[in-house]
Amino acid sequence: MKVPVHQTAAWKALEAEANEMAKPDRHLALLLKDETRAQWARIEGAGILLDVTRQRITRTTLDRLTALAHQQNALGRLRAMADGEIVNTTEKRAALHMACRDFSGRSIRVNGEDVIPEIASVRDKVRDFSEAIRSGRIRGAKGKPFRDIVVIGIGGSYLGTEFVGKALEAYADPSYRMHYLANVDGNQFGAITRLIDPEATLWIVVSKSYTTAETLANEALARHFMKERGLDPTNHIVTVTAKGSPGDDPKNPVLATFHMFDFIGGRYSVSSAVGAVPLSILLGYDVFERFLKGAEAMDRHALDTEAQGNLPLMAALLSIWNTNFLGYPAQGIIPYAAPLAKLAAHIQQLDMESNGKMVCLNGEVVGFDTGPILFGEPGTNAQHSFFQLAHQGRAFPIDFIGVVKPQYAVEPVLTKGVTNHEELWANLLSQVMALAVGKQEGSDPFRYFPGNRPSSLIVLPDLSPESVGKLLAFYEARTVFQAFIWATNPFDQFGVELGKTMADTLRRAMVRRKKETSYGFEDASPYDRPYLKALFDR
Question: How do residues 5-20 score in pLDDT, each as one tens digit?
Fold first, then answer.
């Protein structure tokens, strides 16, 4: 049987390296005095720069991390994934999110069948539909052109779309307003319905299985809302779902249905119809395709570049180094670009649902932590929020993201001699360095900064559709690379099922109480009964 990764020679060498890194002479303030460091700790790929000079590593660390990647065949497994091999072994599926943005013309076969023609067919259908909506050829039940778009879906059915939609808002048609209805809390539904014109609203329901409780509850509310206003939901609802699901039933007609594929998990699905339908309406199909081609460029970089020049593989190795060897429990994602405000929320799900695992592929307990706790907020907001902790409290690694060219040409007003964009970069670069070197001199303990706090700097040339696509694909590949090295499965999510199952029990108890007013929730846990009673006695 294959030796678990944490018992291999490559892992043991990194444990020894971590012991060396704890010594005083390995403080980042001292390591950064070596000006040759930038020669091997800055790498560029697909037009993006990854600067890891402020990570707690030496050249030896990088070599040992690379040896771990080779030992675990991380690149080989990514290539096998992209070729359609069954890498999602627990569900016996391929994982082909990359295929949604593969314009190479090659065939990718799953169980002997080329999946590319059907993927291309869905894209063509999205193009035609989005152009018909944007041109006004398809309108609401009472003849109004659509102006409000409500995406009904939860988790991977909306988070990626919201991230990309916000990031590329500068490219959006200003006559459209995008809303996201994820939470089953009726307050969110109520808030959205205050903002929309019912006769000009398109509801896009996203669910692969079309059995997700929250999504079905919100769809039912939407249908009731439309019928109460004399609107036929058939002319206002679009579904994005698996072929043959309840959302793809000719007996329940809708305006249009777009198919998802079982080889694409929700959190990896923004490149598919999940993101394509709403984003092509908001941005125009051509802009969405530019986003796909940017993602494709990063995919090609991840697949074709050897380890030490491979941006997402290096980022994955550093995450493993910080989590498993240096013992950091969390990681921040801080984009110094307001349009990337929803990036952290998307990467939270992408990474934590993929890598929050406790067993290896062979079903045995992993024996180490997988996946840090991810969180984030745009800079400079974050500096006035949780950076006190970052500098003087519990340390955590950070991905800083900088953008050279802003989306908007703001008037070049000078404050203290610099523009707003220059001020943004001054703050970004100073935070990166301050966390690394700290401030030790002086006798005031309240103004002591220990430094030695690691970070990476990711630099994008701009926030074009191509660059946003590259950033998305970078984090997707980083997520998958980590799992391949840990020998876990980043494509299932059984950890979200238990709570859903328990909710079924409580739901049945609520239904029984409605039928039998004398029923005292005997089927529910005694810990839950007081809350259920209060809910029904309100």
Answer: 999 999 999 999 999 9
Torsion of Cα atoms, 87 then 80 then 2 then 313, to 10°:
-100
Structure tokens belonging to residue 172: 């959006």
Task: Look at residue 395 and give its three-state secondary structure.
Answer: coil
- Which CATH number is 5-72+305-492 given? 3.40.50.10490
- Establish whether domains 5-72+305-492 and 97-289 are of one fold: yes
Catalytically active residues, by annotation:
353, 384, 500
Taking CA 99 as the corner, what is the angle to CA 95 and CA 104, rounded to the nearest 5 degrees?
A: 150
CATH class of 97-289: alpha beta
Q: Report the number of secondary-structure helices (H) and strands (E) in the chain.
A: 18, 13
As a residue count, the chain comes to 538
pTM check: above 0.85: yes
Residue 469: which of 267, 295, 226, 269 has the closest Cα? 295
387-397 pLDDT, tens digit per residue, is: 999 999 999 99
Tokens 């109480």 belong to residue: 513
Beta-sheet strand order (sheet of 42-45):
42-45, 48-51, 455-460, 398-403, 330-336, 373-376
pLDDT in tens, 71-80: 999 999 999 9
Q: What residue ranges do the domains of the chain occupy?
A: 5-72+305-492, 97-289, 495-537
Residue 289 CA to residue 295 CA, distance in Å, equals 10
